[in-house]
Structures are given as structure tokens and as C-alpha cells.
Amino acid sequence: MNKLTADDLIYGYINGIFPMADADGTLYWYSPDPRAVIPIAGYKPSRSLRPTLNKQQFDIRINADFEQVMRCCATPRSIDDSTWISAEIIDAYTDLHQMGLAHSVETYIDNRLVGGLYGVAIGGAFFGESMFHHVSNASKVAFHHLIMILREQQFSLLDTQFINDNVKRFGAIEISKREYADQLKRALKQKARFTEAAVEHLFRSHAGD
């Protein structure tokens, strides 16, 4: 197989599939059934997270260091763990980021990157890929701001691929592959945009909340 490209990723996402790498770097494409999604309108921050949000202890940045977010997400969580984010995947998504279709939401303390997430935005669909944290609640705060951005720009689909305990805490549910395809088709027709201007407007409008 030829090296993964940004165009391959675009084709994959609009057709409901996404790549993951094995430990040896071999790429495979997946289309789970059922599929995990997070209803954007239904998300509410947990009671335990609200004090952290109110304290505003994290500096939130968008797309400031996309590649580093990916590299942090690719770091195995333990010595017995492996990663599905290969160097080839990092290169392809970084190219997609430079095209304006892949984005990161990042949390900082004293200018130090301590958490974040990344994903792909096409039309009104955001395809969440991975997140990481080096400080408690850092990735949860990044996710909270992601949701605020998606709501502000009227995205309709937040794809999280597989169900697990990590995404369940954000309200993830499973839907059939057929229902996912229907939602994806509708979302791709939307004109939502994950832009810097939209993010700046969002933060200004919520300043002092």
C-alpha cells in the first residue's frame, strides 16, 4: 500500500471509515458497527469538572501545536500498552491540518502543554480521534471547549468511533452503522466551519461567565 495521504483521509472520513495502525505500523481501515457518537446538544460538564472550569486554571489554545498534540496522544499510556498512532498517521494528519481540516484543542499551564485532543472537521461533522493529559482534568477541559465550539458553529455530528469508558463519561452512545451513515450524509451537507475567527468569537462571548 502507498503511504497514507491527506486525500486518503478525506476520502475515508466522507465514506465512514478511518485508519489505525498495528504495533508494526501496518495500517487498517475501520468502520465499526455499532458506531459511537456523542450527541453535541446533550453534553453537560460533570459536577466535579465545573469548579475547574470556573477557576479557569488552563489557558485554552486552538491549533497552536497540532503535531505535538498528536505526538502526546501517540505516547503509550503504560509499558504494556501500544499505540495506533504511527509516524505515518502523524504525517498524514499534520498535512490535513495544514489544509485546514484537522484541528487541535489544547490546554496549557504557564505556557506548558498539559492536555488536548485532535480530530477532523468536514462539513458539520467532527471526527474525534484521540486525547491526552499530563495534568488532571486537562483533557476534560479541552473536550468541554470542543463542544462549545461545535455548538457555536452548529455542527451536528461528533463521531467518537468506538465506545469505551473514556467517551461514555462525555455522553457517548452507540448507533447502528446505517444510522451513522444517515447522520454523516446530512452533516457533510452543512456549511459549518471550525475557524480561528469562530473560536475567538466564542471565547469573547463567554468571557466572564
From TrEMBL:
UniProt keyword list: Acyltransferase, Cytoplasm, Transferase
E.C. numbers: 2.3.2.6
Keyword Cytoplasm carried by entry: yes
GO annotation terms (biological process): protein catabolic process
GO molecular function: leucyl-tRNA--protein transferase activity
Pfam families given in the database record: Leu_Phe_trans
Catalytic activity: N-terminal L-lysyl-[protein] + L-leucyl-tRNA(Leu) = N-terminal L-leucyl-L-lysyl-[protein] + tRNA(Leu) + H(+); L-phenylalanyl-tRNA(Phe) + an N-terminal L-alpha-aminoacyl-[protein] = an N-terminal L-phenylalanyl-L-alpha-aminoacyl-[protein] + tRNA(Phe); N-terminal L-arginyl-[protein] + L-leucyl-tRNA(Leu) = N-terminal L-leucyl-L-arginyl-[protein] + tRNA(Leu) + H(+)
Subcellular location: Cytoplasm
GO cellular component: cytoplasm
Gene3D superfamilies: Leucyl/phenylalanyl-tRNA-protein transferase, C-terminal domain, Leucyl/phenylalanyl-tRNA-protein transferase, N-terminal domain
Cited function: Functions in the N-end rule pathway of protein degradation where it conjugates Leu, Phe and, less efficiently, Met from aminoacyl-tRNAs to the N-termini of proteins containing an N-terminal arginine or lysine.
Similarity remark: Belongs to the L/F-transferase family.
Name used for this protein in its record: Leucyl/phenylalanyl-tRNA--protein transferase
Source organism of the structure: Fibrella rubiginis
Gene it is expressed from: aat
